[in-house]
Amino acid sequence: MKKVSIFAALLAAGLVSVSAEATNLVLYTSQPNEDAQATVDGFMAANPDVKVDWVRDGTPKIMAKLQAEIEAGNPVADVLLIADTVTLERLKEAGKLLAYKSPEAASYDAALYDADGHYYSTKLITTGIMYNTSASMKPASWKDLTKPEAKGLLAMPSPLTSGAALIHAQTLASVDDLGWDYYKALAANGAIPAGGNGAVLKSVASGEKAYGMVVDYMPIREKAKGAPVEFVFPQEGVSAVTEPVGILASTKNAEAAKKFVDYVLSEKGQEGFLKLGYIPARNGMKLPEGFPARDSIKVLPIKAGEALKNTDQDLKTFSGIYGSN
Amino acid sequence: MQGYVRAGSSQPAWLFPLIILVVLILSVLPLARLAVAGIAALAHGGVSAVLADPALWSATYYTIVTAILGTLISLVIGCAFAFLLTLTDIRGKGLLSFLFVLPMMIPPQVTALAWVQMSGPSSPLLKALHIAPSLGSPQPLYSVGGIALLYGVQHAPLVYLALRSGLMALPRDGVEAARLSGASSFRVFRNIILPLSLPGVIAGAAISFVSCTGNFGIPAILGIPASIYTLPTLIFSKFSAFTSRTFGEVALLSAIIAIIAVAGLAVQDRALRGRDYRVLGLSGATATFDLGGWKYLFAPLIWVILFFMLAAPFFALLAGALVPAYGVPLTFKTISFNAFHEVLFRQAVTRTAFVNSLSLAAGTAMCLLLVTVLSAYALTRRRDAVSRAVSGLIEIPYSLPGIVIAVCFILVFAAPLPVLNVTFYGTIWIILIAYLSSFFAVSLKPVVSAFHQLDPALEEAARLSGAGFFRRLRDIIVPLIAPAAGASVILVFLIACNELTISALLWSAGTQTLGVAIYNLDDSGSSDLASALSVLIVVMVIVMMLLLELLARRLPKGVVPWRS
User: Fold this and answer.
1) What is the ipTM of this complex?
2) Which of A99, A121, B383, B416 is such that its CA lies 20 to 30 A from the CA of A79?
3) Best interface-test mutation with B: which of A7, A136, A203 has the largest number of B CBs within 10 A?
């Protein structure tokens, strides 16, 4: 009995300490775990008085979680750091975001943040083509992926689980020469969209597939670690998301949240992203190792407003082509 | 209240109502809430949209097909092991039994991850051995067959355990009588042992089928990359694309899984009805077959099967954790402990997950211990229709898939509690309550069997000498059932530690469990970190099972599942 009560007391203490750890700031992010941890560590080192708890998942899943929490009357997140501005624009229109004018914005291109301060782009993540070094073809254009050499060998992320993949599909679909016909050709060539960019990286690096549509930093970083992969910026250009940061209007920790926004936009925060292998959004920063010169990367345009309006229709079109749910 | 005794009964008057209250909260309320949501969705006409969704029907089809195939595989493996390890003179039965039950205790997503690392072009293990398939070869496990195979491996121990208890009670006299009349071993097996063990086989098949229909970890890792959805993964993906209709839709989907699970149990019930093989003259000794020369075939075969079920996947997992990047072959030059370092010392998520899983498991085990000791006492002392109904209600949440329980509790707690205005949704408490509901029956079983062995005269004597309820509890009941209660605590702890399905829907910031952490790491492309964390969990499971094994000498027979 005595042992039991000691155990119960320990347990109670454990549970209490868990809830006591429930921290000042909750971050929802779509960065991979290691990067999310590094970002949070960097912020906490610069702001020792704030403790950050974070959740990582693909952008659509994060949004679903947030929406379910809002519906239940208990939104947990304070800050979002997720794939694309389109999603944050939608939240802004729904009145869910806090307007905050960060002093760091002065060092950013005006196109990279919301004029009222609802969200700020933090980096440039492009989507191009990766291939396994033992693959027979070295793709140079998006159209190469529809060739017979790539039949059944292409991995691509699903817009249903990845924010970057959605923007990518919307971007390519609005290129005259490609359009939805391009996605139909890929489907005819045996491509099955599944999971997020992590899943694409895994299946190409492992050799289950030979080619993949994927965000730039993953293969470039894995190549540096010795993985048998290469990344190319196709000649038509690449799509890009900017992983914006925004504060939820329902936050109870606005001060800490503002500090977080300032930190990720600051030179120090941006250097952290650079070290992880991302192209920083801030003016005058270097490019990470393994990238070509910035002016040689051609970014395809996307109109955020239009993309936002068409998102549901585009998802339906995509699901229709691939018969996925 | 202490010492208050109702006339003619040894129980305090508050005890039974208290238990009924607990059962109402843990079983009746959530299931009723699910039923209401389902009916409301039906009434609002959302049904036609849900029923017209081809995804629903393909998921139902895949759920049933994989569950049936998985059950067949688990029957083949489970029965073979049960016969060989219970009825023959094969050597090292204790160790073999321990090893064979191990896969059941390992989280399904860890099993899936290990098998993926073991096969296909991605396997660091096969690459290290230079036998990896060529570029572009499909991963064979991302298929209906792959899912069914792993269901079979994961659930074979359930069949083994269900069959084994029946086999242990087989009468040696009957077998000897047949032998003396000149029956061959084969004939004895066919005419005596097989018919007598059929109820065990049917029970094992039903348990395995129900566990397959509710499994989430295996189809999540093997099915989603190939666009094969089962009902639990479909519910999960519905939550990943949350809309205002989601709650109603998942209520209907959960109802379909519940129907399939209940149908499985009903088939078992039907099959067992009218089969009453009463065994006379229990000799207490288990019948044994002398394997003779056959042991040179069976013994190595058993070890080979165990090697492929346990050792090979584990080494593949280890290899996957030790490579520096995906796709790099493992050699002495490339070996890297970075994943373990990252998981153990850098990732806050892993630490949080360890703390959460361990405290949730401990919390569930301790709360249930308290409730089960009181309920087992009340239920074994009162033997009326009400107490039988209460026992039945306690069983229901356990026999339903975890994802259904998770949906039930989301529905109950999605809105803030009335009056108190506190929200459980998104906190650790909702996971704790769902665990309590789901594992109540697991915790209750060993304690009830201990109470059945307890002589009521002891307690009566104490009562006549004027000892109050709590006094009797402290001095007589608790010491006598302590070993069984201890075993029940460890079992619940083990199961709750490895849980994924319930927490996959209920987790939120800071409340990730180990199961969720592994799934998310793998999902984000960090399969080296997922492998490293899985290796640590497998080691933890083995240590806990060894603890239980050490405790086993002081426990009543049958409490530690894999011991004879």
Assistant:
1) 0.71
2) B416
3) A203
Interface test mutation site (partner B, options A87, A225, A311, max chain B beta carbons within 10 A): A225
A26 and B121: CB-CB below 8 Å? no
- With vertex at residue B192, the alpha carbon angle to CA B188 and CA B193, rounded to the nearest 5 degrees, is 90
The pLDDT mean for chain B works out to 82
Domain ranges within chain A, ordered by starting residue: 6-122+242-291, 124-240+297-322
Distance of alpha carbon A141 from alpha carbon A185, whole angstroms: 14
Contact B242 A57 (CB under 8 A): no
The residues, ordered by sequence, that sit 6+ positions from A31 with a Cβ below 8 Å of its Cβ are A39, A56, A81, A243
Domain A6-122+242-291 sits in CATH at 3.40.190.10
For residue A132, the chain B residue with the least C-alpha distance is B135
pLDDT in tens, B215-257: 998 998 898 878 889 999 988 888 776 666 777 788 888 888 8
Looking at residue B2, its pLDDT comes to: 45
pLDDT at A142 over 90: yes
pLDDT for res B4:
45
H or E element at residue A193: strand A192-193
Residues B122, A203: C-beta atoms closer than 8 Å: yes
CA nearest to B399, candidates B103, B18, B27: B27
Q: What is the pTM of this model?
A: 0.80
pLDDT score of B288 more than 80: no
What element of type H or E holds B61?
Answer: helix B54-87
Residue of A nearest to B361 (CA): A11
Nearest residue in A to B327, CA atom: A206
**C-beta separation of B62 from B146 below 8 A:** no
Find the closest chain A residue to B508 by CA distance.
A55
- A211 is annotated as contributing to ligand binding: no
b/e burial code for range A51-90 (CB count within 10 A of at least 16 → b): ebbbbbbbbbbbbbbbbbbbbbebbbbbbbbbbbbbbbbb
- Burial of residue B54 (CB within 10 Å: 0-12, 13-18, 19+) is exposed
Contact A69 B425 (CB under 8 A): yes
Domains and CATH numbers, chain B: 54-336 (1.10.3720.10)
- Over range B352-375, report the average pLDDT: 92
- The answer to whether B523 and B475 have CB atoms below 8 angstroms apart is no
- Cα(first)–Cα(last) distance of chain A, in Å? 54
Radius of gyration of chain A (CA): 21
Domain A124-240+297-322, CATH? 3.40.190.10
Q: Which of B227, B326, B413 to mutate to test the interface with A (most CBs of A within 10 A)?
A: B326
